[in-house]
Amino acid sequence: MALPRVLSVIGAGQMGIGIALVASLRAKIPTVLLYDRDPSQITKGLEFMDKLLAKDVSKGKTSEDDAKAARGRIISITSSSASSSTSNNDEFGWARELGERGSDMVVEAASERLSIKEGIFRALAKNLSKDAVLASNTSSISITKLAGAAVEGLGSTISKANEEGKSCAGRVVGVHFFNPVPVMKLCEVIPGLQTSEVTLERAKAFAVACGKEVSTSKDVPGFVSNALLMPFLNEAIMCLESGTATRDDIDKTLRLGMGHPMGPLQLADFIGLDTCLAIQETLYEGTRDSKYRPSVLLGRMVDAGWLGKKSGVVEFISFA
Ligand code: 3HC
């Protein structure tokens, strides 16, 4: 199955940077366009990528030439660079630029918010080639819903029921990588209700080329991975909230008693508390099942702007 020649990664956070890195270094995709609406995020992300590559070189895991070539295949695109080729008021100049540069696959790795992702999928469907695979690295949001947004992006004459709409929705798929992307061995692939066989196979081939094993999940809230992980993390936060044990003892129990590489509170910090909350809200809203209701403490911590490792503090320490 053909791999993309020009891959666009949307979002230069920890997931987007990891995906761009494995796509370039492992899959050797000839061009990887990295877009973020915040240019400082791209600068920060690429600095981190450079550190990872330098570490791989120093450990002999990657040759200096391969690291250099991988980095050279990555081109950053910002709203400002995109608007120079279009009008300054064009909020979708970035999508047009990704299309003009020939993107034949996109992996969207923006914040875990439905409205943000729907906006991106509308813009992508409107501006990218009619053959491009439109993939999302969402942790929990419905792929079927994102495919619906893509069809809306084509304009009012195209509907989910007509041939053009079906073909567009057929190109939307979930490719769910795990953090840290260069280290974790899995990519969960999720077909929406409309995803075509060809798209599914292209998504799997891409994940394998990036060095990942593939598992497939139906398009249910949280898919297999987060439908199982998030109630576990939430239960650990509730243990802390109710005073069952200290932060350290909760994490130690799972690390040393069950052989987990990280305790659940450390893992929630590592994923990002805002991301955990967003996923739990999607699970709860999508199922109306109380087992997915986010803990009050998690909500309060996010309200306080305590987002975990990415905001520079190990937050749960304050509650130990
Ligand atoms: N990015 C890239 N590489 C990283 C990294 C990062 N953020 N953090 C650590 N690494 C690399 C290190 O460089 C090191 O590589 P090396 O073997 O080549 O030297 C390797 O990982 C091991 O790192 P350390 O020796 O520093 O530390 P540990 O042995 O403690 O491992 C860990 C770190 C791999 C993060 C390990 O603790 C772990 O596996 N934790 C669990 C992670 C996990 O469960 N991830 C899934 C989260 S859920 C998710 O992503 C889904 C989403 O939808 C929520």
From TrEMBL:
Q: What's one GO BP annotation on this UniProt entry?
A: fatty acid metabolic process
| SUPFAM superfamilies assigned | 6-phosphogluconate dehydrogenase C-terminal domain-like, NAD(P)-binding Rossmann-fold domains
Against InterPro entries, the record matches this protein to: 3-OHacyl-CoA_DH (IPR022694), 3-OHacyl-CoA_DH_NAD-bd (IPR006176), 3HC_DH_C (IPR006108), 6-PGluconate_DH-like_C_sf (IPR008927), 6PGD_dom2 (IPR013328), NAD(P)-bd_dom_sf (IPR036291)
Q: Which Pfam families match?
A: 3HCDH, 3HCDH_N
What GO molecular functions are on record for this protein? NAD+ binding; oxidoreductase activity, acting on the CH-OH group of donors, NAD or NADP as acceptor
Question: Organism's domain of life?
Answer: Eukaryota
Keywords in alphabetical order: NAD, Oxidoreductase
Q: Does the keyword NAD apply?
A: yes
The UniProt record gives the binding positions of NAD(+) as 11-16, 36, 112, 117, 139, 179, 310
The annotated site for Important for catalytic activity falls at 176
User: Which stretches make up the 3-hydroxyacyl-CoA dehydrogenase C-terminal domain?
Assistant: 222-312
Q: What residue stretches are annotated with the 3-hydroxyacyl-CoA dehydrogenase NAD binding domain?
A: 8-80, 102-219
Coiled coil ranges (UniProt) are none
The family annotation for this protein states: Belongs to the 3-hydroxyacyl-CoA dehydrogenase family.
| Designated name of the protein | 3-hydroxybutyryl-dehydrogenase
